[in-house]
UniProtKB/TrEMBL annotation:
<protein>
    <submittedName>
        <fullName>DUF1735 domain-containing protein</fullName>
    </submittedName>
</protein>
<dbReference type="Pfam" id="PF08522">
    <property type="entry name" value="BT_3987-like_N"/>
</dbReference>
<feature type="domain" description="BT-3987-like N-terminal">
    <location>
        <begin position="50"/>
        <end position="140"/>
    </location>
</feature>
<dbReference type="InterPro" id="IPR013728">
    <property type="entry name" value="BT_3987-like_N"/>
</dbReference>
<feature type="signal peptide">
    <location>
        <begin position="1"/>
        <end position="20"/>
    </location>
</feature>
<keyword id="KW-0732">Signal</keyword>
């Protein structure tokens, strides 16, 4: 790319000008010109920003001699990069050409020009900042110090991976969505804690063609309030395509009607592109109301992190939710619905969930996907006497394999209640035989189903899916409708001992404590801290 500093472009034809071609630069009434007051100066000075994604820049640099007297020589010297700060590296000489870096003025010359060309910038290390400072020097004449230096700063364009947009104020955060560009992934980083008290937040809308990677830098956004919104999804993001990491939301208040709803996002990822959530902590309240029928069933999902996560490459990793969630339809402590092979791993929920449909301590409904190394504690209840009745559980309320689904290395201490099937880990495995539940611990204090004896300590209605190596609290109180069936220990489900034609899974109750059960299952101690009274995730204790 050829660049001309504007004042130079208009003077290019005067690359060499003599006194015979211009008016005398001195006035007759002024003092006689002497060599001591003749000076050299750059015609243009200042600072210029160059970007590494542009392969080439070109400038014409002109030097002026103040009077038509005296022969003189001058050149442009490179300034030490340390003068611009420790973060800058001197631009290596092989990335620029300074043609003819010698200004030879004859007695009647007043202007000279050289060409500066930057090239191959895309091959530089994009994680570094470079500088080239050029200073006019001469042994023959004085140099006007106010017009002696040009400085070129070179780095990745802002919004790129190595030079993200900085978000330091409430205004920066509010306008972040305006920086999204079609066909590009924009990078941004939060630099300070931000309080959104008094702001009626409008969700940031990413898309497959306008993705965002946001690094919270470990900072906290306080008092996020989302109430009135034109977005089809409700949260800090409406739809998150890209990645959000290292951020805390404290005292969030999210209110919605028949929308996918979560503190971080209504919807994470979709069928065409992934969404990744990593090291995000949320606390606050969600209130979601919905109508009736298929639309409410499809879109009325609430979760502490998000209402829905979708896609085989989409993931919620090392996140926590300490929330009070009230929803007309389905709700989960981390996510309302997971589908399309999404993964939830190393997450926990502490709080209470009250809903009129599916309820799960981690995820309410899962249509193909994986939940591993998660735990829940608190209350997860679905109101009775709702049509259609729906299940509840400490990890996942309803699972459909489509074709497979996995729950492993999870535990729950949630108090569970629902009108239909309940389980300490899984409520209902539906439509298929590709569900696997393994190495989990149902340490719930109580399970209650208003009308479904097809319930179990670990898994409720199971329909010949696979379960093994799970333990249950020997003191768990189980009330499964008016006719609670006999609850017996099972290493694996006993498919011949069905209840009303349906399988269920109770696991083993032979170990007296939660910690002992987890240790017996040999959970990975690089993921779990097993040194205290209860299992905790290593990452949460390191915060």
């Amino acid at each position: 790319m050829k660049r001309y500093i504007p004042i130079v472009a208009s003077l290019m034809v005067f690359s060499l000008i003599s006194c015979g071609e211009v008016m005398d630069l001195t006035q007759p009434e002024k003092a006689e010109v002497t060599y001591s007051n003749i000076t050299l100066s750059l015609y243009q000075t200042g600072k210029y920003d160059l970007y590494l994604d542009e392969p080439e820049y070109q400038y014409n640099i002109m030097v002026e001699k103040s009077h038509c007297e005296k022969e003189a020589k001058a050149k442009l010297a490179v300034v030490d990069a340390k003068e611009f700060g420790e973060e800058y590296h001197l631009l290596p000489v092989e990335y620029y050409d300074l043609d003819g870096n010698n200004f030879n003025f004859k007695g009647d010359d007043v202007l000279r020009m050289v060409n500066l060309r930057f090239h191959d910038l895309g091959t530089l290390d994009g994680s570094k900042k470079y500088v080239l400072g050029l200073k006019l020097v001469s042994d023959d004449l004085a140099v006007n110090q106010e017009k002696s230096t040009m400085t070129f700063f070179l780095q990745q364009k802002q919004g790129e991976i190595d030079n993200p947009y900085t978000v330091a104020t409430t205004s920066d955060l509010i306008t972040l969505g305006e920086k999204l560009k079609d066909g590009k992934t924009i990078y941004a980083k939060i630099e300070n804690d931000i309080d959104l008290q008094g702001v009626d937040w409008q969700p940031i809308e990413t898309s497959v063609s306008k993705q965002l990677v946001l690094d919270g830098g470990g900072h906290t956004i306080r008092n996020l309030k989302v109430n009135t919104s034109s977005s089809v999804n409700q949260g800090f993001f409406g739809l998150l395509v890209g990645k959000c990491s290292n951020i805390n939301f404290e005292n969030a208040q999210i209110t919605a009607n028949q929308k996918l709803t979560g503190v971080l996002a209504g919807h994470v990822g979709n069928a065409s592109a992934a969404g990744v959530v990593e090291n995000v902590r949320v606390s606050g309240t969600i209130n979601l109301t919905s109508g009736t029928g298929p639309t409410a069933w499809e879109n009325g999902q609430a979760g502490g992190i998000c209402g829905r996560i979708q896609g085989a490459e989409s993931k919620i990793y090392q996140c926590s939710s300490e929330m009070s969630i009230n929803a007309t339809w389905s709700a989960g402590g981390i996510c309302g619905e997971a589908k399309g092979g999404a993964t939830i791993t190393q997450c926990y929920f502490v709080g209470d969930i009250i809903t009129k449909s599916c309820v799960g301590g981690i995820v309410s409904r899962m249509f193909q996907g994986t939940v591993t190394h998660c735990y829940s504690s608190g209350v997860a209840k679905s109101y009775p006497n709702v049509t259609p009745p729906n299940p509840g559980a400490g990890i996942a309320g309803l699972v459909e394999p489509s074709p497979t689904a996995l729950i492993s290395h999870c535990y729950s201490e949630c108090e569970i209640a629902a009108q239909n099937q309940v389980g300490g880990i899984l409520g209902l495995a539906n439509k298929g035989t590709g569900v696997t539940v393994t190495r989990c611990v149902a340490w719930n204090s109580s399970l209650y189903s208003n009308g479904a004896p097809k319930s179990g300590r670990v898994c409720g209605r199971f329909d010949k899916n696979e379960a093994n190596n799970c333990y249950a609290n020997p003191n768990m109180e189980c009330r499964f409708s008016a006719n609670t069936p006999a609850i017996v220990d099972e290493v694996v489900p006993n498919y011949s001992a069905t209840v009303n034609g349906a399988d269920r899974y109770n696991g083993l109750s032979t170990i007296p404590t939660l910690m002992a059960a987890v240790k017996a299952l040999q959970w990975d101690e690089s993921i779990w801290d097993l040194s205290g009274e209860k299992p905790r995730l290593v990452w949460e204790l390191a915060q």
